[in-house]
Amino acid sequence: MIIKKMHEMGVRSEHAYIAAMASIGLSVVAWAGSLKVEPGVNVARADRWGIFVGEWAPTFFGLGLALSHYEQQDGTLTADVHEFRQAQKAG
């Protein structure tokens, strides 16, 4: 299973969620950058760049959900949350 292999490699749901949010931001940057770099080209090309990068976000969110579900079954999500709460109380 791909999700299990990703988990074993150290990829966590938080990583996928961060990648999804970065993809959303990158799509805006790609759109704006395409407008500035290629001013003679119409807006449609810039829109396509923004949409292309923006399409990654749902995939990353889906991976995040699948990893989160796996972490809940595996028990590592609960341990991570517990450690996070202890770290907040300590510092």
From TrEMBL:
| Entry superkingdom | Bacteria
Name the chain's protein: Uncharacterized protein
The opening ranks of the lineage are: Bacteria, Bacillati, Actinomycetota, Actinomycetes, Kitasatosporales
Organism of derivation: Streptomyces afghaniensis 772
